[in-house]
């Protein structure tokens, strides 16, 4: 389904007065408003191909209908989101869930929707039908050389698909680890994994990046072979300049100070990308900002400050992606909410008075430092984010328009009530 531009314009006109009033009031107190708006318009967040259907838990899955049945329909869905908010101009593919059978056509279809191909993702955490060796006891860490070979070859194949599509990065997330003490020799597991990653790294084109994504638990519960940012950084440093750490917000042990991790990885020039989501207990993959929006803001504050310190381009120098799952919400509505939460946190982080903060820090004025941060966090930036959308050609209120246009009803009519998407 395509949303014609005139429908967006019509909606914006109908809601324009109210918006203008709010935005003008907001803009009157911000000095560099055009600069901030430009940054917001430029900022793009990739949508994963595996997050367009209903997610499930090991207890069940309750599909809501109209889910995309193939890669083409997934691209259509992301195109639809992008036309509504103009902030999701990229798709990230997981292989083999979404193999581009005809890369030229897939690339052309994506381009029609204004979408680029973000990081490619390999999958050595599931066995596929017809696969020769099993990943039950890990992939790159495996004690069996043939299994390691199979996992390496798979990653190299994923790179090849990515080259055809114009992607520029590979994200490797391994479920490797152990469930019980004694099951694994940690050193051997690390060394095998490093050897495998080295071979994959060697297959990367010159202008590609490799993201090593860490996760503390699940599906293994005693140890994980890329378990935290320290381990990921070890691999990335040993691999070379094209290898980076990828931070997925849901992959930490409880109460981890993610903003500090982000800050130090940026300092080391080893932060590569981000998977956004939110969580209460573990890798819950909930809507970004739904549980802990202040933490999200603090993370963005480190990102903005750290990227500025290194003169980085906010929108292109790191990989931004949503990695969420939707068990009870409409996946598309949920993704619109996630993008909005990211834009809000980013906007607030852009409004922090970094100079004043530095002065407060140098004076050990703890109270002032907190005031400065919370001043920015408590600004209602929704009109600002909406104005960026308006200027970028998107809808003032994407979610409202999504409902008004009865998008889900249309998708169900077209695709059927009982459709299942590949993914988690
Ligand atoms: C993992 C991790 C990866 C994602 C898989 C599906 O927990 O977040 O990024 O590819 O889930
Ligand atoms: Mn992830
Ligand atoms: Mn995850």
Write a short abstract of this structure.
With 424 residues, this protein is an alpha/beta fold. Helix content is 48%, strand content 11%.
What's the arrangement of strands in the largest beta sheet? 1-4-5-6-8-10-11-12
Number of helices in the DSSP assignment: 15
| Main sheet attributes: strand count, strand direction, barrel closure | 8 strands, parallel
**Beta-strand residue percentage:** 5-15%
What does this structure look like?
The structure is a single chain. The chain is an alpha/beta fold and 424 residues long. Helices cover 48% and strands 11% of the residues. It has 15 helices and twelve strands. It has helices at 5-27, 33-42, 71-85, 103-112, 145-165, 186-202, 229-239, 258-267, 293-309, 331-350, 354-362, 366-377, 382-392, 398-404, 407-415; strands at 46-48, 56-57, 60-61, 90-94, 116-121, 169-173, 177-178, 209-213, 223-224, 243-248, 271-276, 319-322. The chain has an eight-stranded parallel sheet. It binds beta-L-rhamnopyranose and manganese (II) ion (2 copies). Beta-L-rhamnopyranose binds at residues 50, 94, 121, 173, 213, 215, 248, 275, 283, 323, 424.
Fold topology:
Elements: H1 5-27, H2 33-42, E1 46-48, E2 56-57, E3 60-61, H3 71-85, E4 90-94, H4 103-112, E5 116-121, H5 145-165, E6 169-173, E7 177-178, H6 186-202, E8 209-213, E9 223-224, H7 229-239, E10 243-248, H8 258-267, E11 271-276, H9 293-309, E12 319-322, H10 331-350, H11 354-362, H12 366-377, H13 382-392, H14 398-404, H15 407-415
From the structure above, extract its key features:
binds manganese (II) ion, 8-stranded parallel beta sheet, 424 residues, binds beta-L-rhamnopyranose, globular
